[in-house]
Each structure stands twice: as C-alpha cells, then as structure tokens.
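Weekly structure sync, notes
Attendees: PL (lead), two postdocs, one rotation student
Agenda item 3: pending single-chain targets
PL asked that the sequence for the first pending target be pasted directly into the notes so everyone works from the same version. It is reproduced below exactly as submitted, 108 residues in total.
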Amino acid sequence: MTKQEIAEIIESKGNEYGFKMRDMGVAWTSEQTSESYIRIELFKETDYDKSNWEDRRVAINLKVTGCICRMGDRRGAEELQKITEEIARGTKMVAELEKIDLSYIETF
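Predicted structure, written out during the meeting:
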C-alpha cells in the first residue's frame, strides 16, 4: 500500500464509525473533544528488517490501539448508553484496522 492509500483507509474507517482522524506525524489519532470517551491511535513503527537504508527506503507499519480517555463522574442511564455506544464503535474500528496490513515504504 502507499501512504496515501493508508490515509484514505484511516479517514474512511473514521467516517464510517463516527471519528474524525488526524495525521499527527508520528501517529494518526482520533480528534478529541470534551465529549470524547475513547481515543483511537495508529502509531508509526519502523520495520527494520524490511527497510533498506542504502536505498533510502524505510518500511513503516502502523500499530492500531484504542484507549478510554475519560472516566469518572456519575451518569444516568441515557448518558451511559451514549458512552458505551461510542466505546463499542471505537472497538469495532480498532478491530477492523488491526486486520488490515497497514504498512508502506517511505523514501528519504
């Protein structure tokens, strides 16, 4: 895959599950607001075995993770339902992205 194809996949999956994704350089992350309960991150990791420094080619793998970014407070049933739905959407997105080999070669 190319870096652009990966960006399109990440943005598409974010839209599908209701998360705005941003490329922060070293990682892709879901946009956080004061209402966010889950954060999705895709960290760029160098695959040294597949990289060729002499040819100036670096293999990059993206590691997909998610975390609960806000807890606490007492909530009613309606708010708790909204929170669990957001976490469920994020969990499904992380699981789908984990199944895809999100890797590319970057030249420098």
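Discussion points:
- The mean pLDDT is 95.
- The beta strands are 21-23, 27-30, 38-52, 57-68, 103-107.
Action: rotation student to compare against the earlier draft before next sync.
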